[in-house]
Amino acid sequence: MALERLDGTFGAGALISVGKARTAALFKKPTKALEDVINKGRTAMTTVDFTPLQGGVPIVADGAIVGAVGVSGASSAQEDEELAIAGATAVTAAAPVSYFQAPQVRDAFAKGAVLFDGEGRNYMVHASRRDGAGQAEVHAKDADIIYVLDGSATFVTGGTVVEPKTTAPDEVRGREIVRGETRTISKGDVVIVPAGTPHWFERVPSAFTYYVVKVRS
After folding, report:
1. Other C-beta atoms within 10 Å of 126: how many?
2. Contact criterion met (CB below 8 Å) for 151 and 174
C-alpha cells in the first residue's frame, strides 16, 4: 500500500484517493460506473460507506482483482481516471524482453562494459573484463553473481578492507583485503557474493572475462 500527495495540492485529496481505490477494489469495478449509477437516479446508493467518484480503477492480474489505484486532485475527474488507469496498467505490465546480439556482447567483453543497466528492474548485467588486479570492493545493496567465461584469477572474499573509502552511495573501495578467503577461479566457475561482502581480484595474470549479474536487495 502506498500513498503520495504532491506539494501544493489540497489535503483532502489524499483521503479521497484512498476512498476511490478502496471502492474500486471492493466493488470490483471503476468508480466512474458507480458515480454514473447515482447520477442516473439511484441516490439510495449514497447511504453506503464508499466513494463513488471517478478516479478509482481496480488492478487485475490473471483475471483476479488484486488491488486498486485511486487518484484525486487532477485538473478534471476524467484526468483522475486516466492517471489511475495508467498506474494500474503499469503495476501489471510485463517487463519487456531484453535481447543482445552476439556482436554487441563480444564488443562489451572486449573492453568491459555494462550490458544491461537495470533501469526499472532490481538487477544489472555486466560484461566484465580484467587485465590485472583491482581494488577491494563492497556493495552494500548489491549481490554479485559471477560466471567466469575465460581466464583465471585469484579472488578474495570476506575479511577486512584496508583503507576503505566511500566512492559512491552504498559503494566502498579499498587497497586490499586482509584475513579473507582466497580462491583461484577459472573458466566455468560461478561465485555468488552476497551484498555487503568484501571481495577483491587480488591477482589476474592475463585477460579475464566474466559475466556479473548484480541483484539489488
Report:
1. 20
2. no
